[in-house]
Recover the amino acids of this structure.
């Protein structure tokens, strides 16, 4: 247990296109889950979403978030990162391209030609409060 | 969107040792995540845990649960199953052996020799209320 991301966890995320599972809080208090591309930025985790998506709406109402990293080739190892999310418009388009190159080898518009129809891109920056797990 | 598990989802879970991500509600209302073996039982999802684990304690206090199925070889497909959990002692040892055979090819005690030290095994039975996703 650590109050911040370990160097091993940051290196794992930097080096691997691992899909993260993100949990937010629904208006009724129940958990909402989705899968996302993820990166590290200093001591934060960052991911991309668009305005109006369920997780974006949930996080604006209640910024508490939990992110699970569970390597598919080592399924009994995991890191559960509990923290709070901050949402910004700045850098939204740069981040989705950075993530698309990490996960697909392409810019986002080449991976997803329908992207031009998307609502505005935002950066979700997760400030970790506590990390549980063995990764 | 469907009110119950689709036949395709049930078949996928029956046929594949896919790891599920389970979200419960912490005492403070924030989401808690863990990874688990999973099976179908009729129109329910079932998984195993032991008395006193964080998710077991959370579910006894607040039975709302969300389960994510996200095939590692098809990471852009998923099913997010939202529902409520019922916890029973009956069948706890049988279920962990059934799951161990599905995921490891062994009885649980052979996969995890420390199992004899575990607290009592329970069955968590998830009654789906809503399924979101493309799996």
């Amino acid at each position: 247990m650590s109050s911040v991301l370990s160097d091993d966890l940051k290196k794992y995320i930097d080096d691997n296109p691992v899909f993260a599972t993100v949990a937010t809080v629904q208006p009724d208090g129940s958990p909402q889950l989705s899968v996302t591309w993820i990166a590290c930025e200093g001591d934060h985790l960052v991911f991309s979403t668009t305005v109006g998506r369920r997780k974006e709406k949930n996080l604006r109402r209640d910024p508490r978030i939990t992110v699970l990293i569970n390597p598919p080739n080592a399924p009994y190892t995991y890191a559960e990162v509990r923290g709070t999310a901050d949402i910004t418009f700045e850098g939204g388009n740069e981040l989705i391209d950075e993530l698309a190159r990490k996960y697909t080898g392409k810019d986002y518009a080449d991976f997803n030609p329908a992207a031009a129809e998307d609502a505005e891109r935002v950066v979700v920056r997760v400030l970790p409060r506590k990390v549980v797990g063995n990764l």
Notes: Strands of chain A lie at 20-25, 31-36, 39-41, 44-50, 64-69, 79-88, 121-133.
